[in-house]
Amino acid sequence: MMQDANSIPPNSIPLAIAPETPWTLPYRGTVGMVCLILAESAIFIIFVVAYIYYIGKSLTGPTPAKVLELPIFGTVCLLSSSITVHFAVAALRKSQLSATTAWLAGTVLLGTIFLITTAREWYHLIHDEGLTIQTNLFGTTYYSLVGLHATHVVVGLIMLSLVLGFSLFGKVNHEHSEKLEVLSLYWHFVDAVWVVVFTVVYVLGR
Amino acid sequence: MSTTHELVGIDETQTIQPGRPPVNVVYEWLTTVDHKKIGLMYIAYALIFLVIAGLEAMLMRIQLAVPNNHFVSPQFFNQLFTMHGTTMVFFVGMPILFGFGNYLVPLMIGARDMAFPRLNAFSFWVSAFAGFLLYFSYLGASGLYAAGSAPDVGWFAYAPLTAKVFSPGHSTDYWTLAVFLSGIGSIGTALNIVTTIICMRCRGMKLSRMPLLVWLYLVMSSLVFVAVSPLTAAQIMLTLDRYIGSHFFDTQAGGSAVLWMHFFWIFGHPEVYVLVLPAFAFVNEIVPVFSRKAIFGYPAMVAASVGIGFISLSVWAHHMFTVGLGAAANTFFVFATMVISVPTGIKIFNWLATIWGGKVIFASPMIFCVGFLFQFLIAGLTGIMLSVAPLDWQLGNSYFVVAHFHYVLVGAILFALFAAFYYWYPKITGRMMSESLALWHFWLFTIGFHLTFDFMHIPGLLGMPRRIYTYEAGRGWGGWNMIVSLGAIVQAIGLLIFVYNLLHSYFRGKPSGHDPWDAWTLEWSTASPPPDYNFAVLPTVNSRRPLWDLKHPEDPDSDYE
Question: Structure pTM?
C-alpha cells in the first residue's frame, strides 16, 4: 500500500489548480536585517542590564556624576544622521542620484563627528580623570557599553562610506534603493540604541 | 512515465557525472552553497561530535561504576564532564537540528534554496571551526610549551571559577571562543531560516498552510536570536574580564558571580526549547503520516509552539533556586515553569489525538516517535517536580537533575532525531534503511536508555551530587551506579547498530522511490535524492497537505480548511 504512492511522478505538483492570485512576499534583505537587529538588541540588552545592575556599586572612584558630561553635540549629530540617511533612500527611490550622494555624504560626516566626540570624551576620561576599564565597575560597564555601540557606529560608517564611494563613481542607481533601505534600517537601529545608551549612561547613571 | 510528467518537463540531465576525480568532489563540498549539501555537512559534523562526546560519557560512566575508582584522574574527569556537556549542546544538538532544518525547510516550503546561501555556508564553517577550536584545546590550551589542557570549568562555567586567577592558562579561553563562534554560526543560520520561511514560500503556501515542522523551525530560530545573543554578550564580558582586566564577574571589585548565572541561564533555558522544538517538529510530521490522519488541532499546535517560545524566556531562574533569590522571585519562576507545561501538554494530547482512531503503521520512524511520547512525558513530570522550589533545594545539583535533563535530551530529543533519520533517510539518499536493524537499534537503545536514566534518578534522591569524581563505598550509591553504567554500554551497542545501518543502507538499501511513506508534504514530490534545484517547476499549494490533494483530487483538503 505504501509503494503505490510512488506511481505519482515527481514534480507533478504544479498541476494542482493554480489560482492566479497575486503572490508577493517581503524582501529578504529587510527581513534578514530585522532578524539581525533582533539578535543585536538582545546583545545590547545584556550590556545595558549589566550597566544598570552595577550603577553605584563601584568600590572606588571616579563616579559617573563626577566625570561624565552630557554629550549633547554628538547626540544631535548622530540623531540627525538618521534623517539624512532617510533622505538619501528617498532620493534614490526617485532616482535623484546626486541628491543621494549628497545625503549619503552628510550621513557619513555626521556619523564621523559623533565618533570624534566619543573619542574626545574617552581621551578626557582616560587622560585627565584616570578612568579605564580596569579602574572600577563604572569603568568596566561604561567602556564596554559605549564601546560596543561605537563599534556598531564604525561598522555602519564603513558600509555607508562604501555606498558613498560607489555613488561617487556613479555605480548606485534606482535598482539599489531596496538595498540602501536595508542599510538605513541598520543605521536607524544604531541611532535608537544610542537613545537607550544616552538615557541609561548619561541620565539614569548620573 | 505518465503524460503529467512530460507536462511539467522535469530536467533529466544528470548534474553529477559518475567517475569524477575525488579532488573535484571534495572541492564541490568545500565550496558548496547548496542548502542540502550544507545540511548534510551539519549532520555529519554533528554525528562525529556525537561519537566523541559519547565516548566522553562512557569514560565518565566507567569512572563512576564502582566506588573509590581511580580509572581517570580528577582533573581529567572535570575536563570530561565539561567537554561532554559543551560538545553535546553546541556541537551536536545545535548543528544536527540546524542540519535537518537546512535540508528540509526549503524543500517543505517549495523553495530552491535558503534566502542567503553564502551566509549559510559561512555559518556552517564558522560553527565547524568552533568545534575544532574546542578540541584543539587538548593540544594547545596551556600554550605552545606545555601539554594542552581542555576546559574544566563545567558547561555553564560559573564565575568566579572562570577568572584568570582560578583558571590560569588558556583552557577557559578555548571554551569561551568556541562557544562564542558557535553562537555566531547559530545566529547566522537562524536568521537564514527565518528569512527563508518568511520570504521564500511557494505560491499558495500561506503561513496557515505551512507544515508544522516549518512553523516550529520559525519559532525555534526566532528564539535563537533572543537566547543565544545574551550568551554571546556574556562571553564578550568574560573575555574582557580575562584579558583586559574588567570586573564584570570579579567579586573582589564588587562584581557579581550571580550575574553570570543569570546571563548564562537566560541563554541556557530557552536553549532547551531551541533543542526540543525541532524534536517536536519531527514528531509533528511523522505521527500523522504513520497514523494515516491529518494532524489533530493544527492551529492549537501552532499556538502552543509560539506560546512555548514566549514562556521559555521567563523561566531561566529555576536553575538558580539554590542561590537564594528571595520568595518573590522564586514564586514567579516556579509558576512560570509550571505554566510552560500547559502548551507542552497540549502538544502531547494533540499527538495522542492524531494517533487515536488512525490506521497506525509501526514502521521505524513511528516506533521511535512512540518512544519519544512516553519518555518526553516522564521527562516533563520530573521537570514539574524540580520546578517546585523547596524540592529543588533538596535535589538541586544532584544526579536527579542530571537524570531529568538527560531524559529530555536523550529520551525525547535523541529519540525524535532517530525517528527523523529513519523517516528522511530515503529522501536524502534514495534508499530505505533496514527495518530489522532499526528494530534492534530501537530495543537495545530503549532498554539501555531506561537502565541508565531511570536508575540515575535514585542515587540523586539518595544525595549523590553531580560532577562528583568518585564516592565512598557504603553510601548505597554503588549498585545503582553500576546499573547506570551497564545501561550506557547497551545504549552504545544500539548506537553502533544505527551507525552501521546508516552506512550499510547507503550502499545496499532497497531503492525507495520518491515517496516511500505515502506522505503529504512537498519534499516527497521531488526526486530522491532531490536535484540541486529541488523543483523543476516551483509548486503551488492549496492546502496543508499538497500531496494529499494531488493523490485524492476527488476529496482535496482545501475543501475543509
Answer: 0.94
